[in-house]
Write a sequence for this structure.
C-alpha cells in the first residue's frame, strides 16, 4: 500500500543532464513500485515527506496546464518520461496524466523517449503509433517473476513487461530493454544475462543495455537483505563488489562482451 497526495508544480518540462536527453517530464513524484535498489530514495527528503520513498506518490494536478503553457514556445530535441518516477505506475489508470502529456507532446517538435517497468503503457498504443519519433524502453532486472517480486514488489512482473514490449514492437514502436541494475551475486550470472538478452531481442527489442548497480548506502542495505533471503550464496560476491565497485564494473564490461559474442545475441539496428 502507498499514500497518495495531490500537489501542484511550477514547471513541467525541465532541462535534463542525462546524455542524449534535452528535457524530462515527471507528472508524478514518488513511486508505488517500492524497488529495494532505488537510487531516488533521497528524494523523499527533498519533498518534505516522512514516509520512505516507495510508500507515497504525489500527483501534480496542474501538470498538464503548466506543460501546455511551456510548449507554446517551440522546442526541439528529446524529452524523457520519466527521469525520476515511473510515468506508468498504477495510479496512471486513474489520473491519465501521462496519456494526456503524450497528447500534448504529439503536437510538438519534441522526440519522446519513455522508460518504464509497467505494461500499462500498452493502453496508450494508439497514441504511440501516431507519434513520429518515439521510443519505449522497459527496465527488466530479471526474468524470474519470483525474484522480481522481492526486488520490485509494486511493479508488474517481468513476464508482463516482455509481453507489452512484444505488443509495442509488433506495432512498429521502437523498443529496447534496460537491464538495471545488474546486482552482484543476484542477477549477474553471464548465462542468465545472456538468456534475458535473447528473450528481449526475441520479443522485438532493438537493443539491450546493461547497467551495473550503484552502491548507494540505502540501496546496498535493501539489496543485501534480499540476497540474504533469496540467494544467500551470493552474499560473498555482493560484499566483494561493494568493497571494489570499479573492479565490478570492469567485470560487467567483460560479461557484456561475452554476451554480445554469443550466437543469436546481436544488437539490432
Amino acid at each position: 500500500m502507498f499514500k497518495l497526495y495531490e500537489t501542484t508544480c511550477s514547471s513541467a518540462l525541465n532541462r535534463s543532464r542525462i546524455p542524449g536527453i534535452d528535457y524530462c517530464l515527471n507528472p508524478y513524484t514518488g513511486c508505488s513500485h517500492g524497488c529495494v535498489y532505488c537510487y531516488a530514495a533521497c528524494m523523499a527528503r527533498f519533498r518534505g515527506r516522512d514516509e520512505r520513498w516507495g510508500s507515497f506518490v504525489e500527483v501534480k494536478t496542474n501538470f498538464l496546464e503548466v506543460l501546455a503553457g511551456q510548449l507554446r514556445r517551440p522546442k526541439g530535441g528529446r524529452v524523457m518520461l520519466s527521469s525520476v518516477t515511473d510515468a506508468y505506475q498504477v495510479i496512471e489508470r486513474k489520473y491519465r496524466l501521462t496519456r494526456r502529456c503524450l497528447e500534448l507532446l504529439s503536437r510538438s517538435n519534441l522526440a519522446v523517449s519513455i522508460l518504464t517497468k509497467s505494461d500499462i503503457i500498452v493502453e496508450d498504443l494508439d497514441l504511440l503509433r501516431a507519434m513520429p519519433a518515439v521510443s519505449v524502453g522497459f527496465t527488466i532486472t530479471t526474468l524470474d517473476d519470483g525474484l522480481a517480486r522481492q526486488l520490485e514488489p509494486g511493479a508488474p512482473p517481468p513476464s508482463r513487461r516482455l509481453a507489452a514490449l512484444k505488443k509495442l514492437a509488433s506495432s512498429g514502436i521502437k523498443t529496447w530493454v534496460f537491464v538495471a541494475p545488474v546486482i552482484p551475486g543476484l542477477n549477474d550470472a553471464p548465462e542468465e544475462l545472456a538468456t534475458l538478452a535473447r528473450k528481449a531481442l526475441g520479443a522485438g527489442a532493438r537493443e539491450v543495455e546493461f547497467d551495473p548497480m550503484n552502491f548507494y548506502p540505502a540501496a546496498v542495505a535493501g539489496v543485501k537483505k534480499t540476497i540474504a533471503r533469496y540467494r544467500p550464496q551470493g552474499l560473498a560476491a555482493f560484499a566483494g563488489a561493494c568493497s571494489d565497485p570499479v573492479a565490478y564494473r570492469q567485470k560487467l564490461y567483460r560479461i557484456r562482451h561475452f554476451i554480445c559474442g554469443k550466437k543469436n545475441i546481436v544488437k539490432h539496428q
User: Anything to note?
Assistant: Strands lie at 3-7, 14-15, 23-25, 28-30, 56-60, 76-81, 109-116, 134-139, 174-182, 208-212. The mean pLDDT is 91.
